[in-house]
Amino acid sequence: MAADQLAQVEISVEVNGTVVERVVEPRTLLVDFLREDLGLTGTKQSCLLEVCGVCTVLVDGRPVSSCTSLAVDADGHKVTTVEGLSDGKTMHPLQESFVDNHALQCGFCTPGFLMMSKALLDESPDVDREEIVEYLDGNICRCTGYQPIVQAVEQVAAQMRQEREVAR
Amino acid sequence: MLPPFRLARPRTLDEALDAIGDDRVPYCGGTELLLAMRAGLTRPEALVDLKSLPELQGIAVDGGHVVVGGTERHMDIAAHSVIRKHLPMLARVEHGVGNARVRAQGSIAGNLCFAEPKSDVGPALMAFGASVTLASPTGRREVTVEELIQGPYFADKEPDELLVDVRVPIPSTATRGAYLKYQITERPTVGVAVVHDPEAGTCRLVVGAVGEVPTVWTGTSPDEIDPDAIAEEVDPTPDLTGTERYKRHITGVYVRRVLEQLADVKAGK
Q1: Is the domain defined by B178-264 classed in CATH 3.90.1720.10?
Q2: C-alpha–C-alpha distance, residues A46 and B6, integer Å
């Protein structure tokens, strides 16, 4: 039996902890779904080629270019955007560290860098500077020269290491 | 905004084979297809999402081969224990594909079926002598990766065929492999893969990215490889990553360097 060919798809996506159900066209990009349908404009879009990284969101914890991903692909999955990093009162350690290290100027690339950094630290908390640089080399920043960004992530990684040692 | 299309979400390989066709194309990570659609290079009537097909998932040893399901993502292949044990060079290559998002989204079958000339994965698999299984409603066939990659963005795969899995012969424990690329943009300027199995007496070196298709050199030992001769043999495509003369030069340099690197690689790595 052939699978149905759908022109409209019902999707159920958990976005920053809240389940949202919508009917979308298959061509709806994840970034447009987040920005236009849900009003989560923290996620930016720029190159539309998976090169610049500003549209990075996490799907089940993995970094994804939401400009080159369909909303239907997120059906049944958990999406975390930059809005999901903080509870609205306390900043995420990465956000704190970006501020402390002056890791942003215009801020347009920042949501992408934050989400990539979160994916990296969640996956491998013991990263060194070289691994951070390697992981973030798919994100473009035209203001900072990258050093403060790498430093900010390094600092959070070090904090996490310290906290783990204290806990031991 | 992408042009409109329909979506099919088959649950089994048979359903998927029924769903694909001329304008109804296989879809997995979208890292190539969605870009091509946005650029207006292709306008399919329907995308057939393969992400729920168990037959296209998994990485396992089957007899003398490592079998990688077509929809396995670069990131998962790079981290998988079977790949790290039997094909460590492939694990290193997969870890360096594109960027972390491309690795999280892009599949091995998508990479091969798009036959992107600046692929890292194709040359590495060719150096291992890998092949792929293509399924159609009328049966299956196995072709080598070398045969599959016919031209730039042109794989020898019919519209009614699906790439089910990639099969890599497990090399002897004496085998050493290396891959070295030069890359200043999101895709490599040149990538050279080499696999030497002294027990079997085989050595394969593959130069990717400089031309329309990878160039394969086969012999018995790396000592027989003449970097200058390979630089002469490749057929470079002049583009933003370099002129023909430059690409020949950098091919020679990277063949020489990958062989130096290979000499330092431990057996089985």
Answers
A1: no
A2: 26
Looking at the structure of chain A, the number of domains it has is 2
Q: Could you read off the pLDDT of A4-38 as tens digits, one per residue? A: 899 999 999 999 999 999 999 999 999 999 999 99
Vertex B17: Cα angle to B49 and A23 (nearest 5): 30
- A61 touches B22 (CB < 8 A): no
Distance CA B60, CA B81 (A): 10
B6/A135 CB distance under 8 A: no
Interval B60-113: pLDDT, tens: 999 999 999 999 999 999 999 999 999 999 999 999 999 999 999 999 999 999
State yes or no: pLDDT of A168 exceeds 90.
no
Nearest to A69 among B15, B16, B30 (CB): B30
ipTM of the complex: 0.95
Domain ranges of chain B: 52-169, 178-264
Q: Does B30 touch chain A (CB under 8 A)?
A: yes
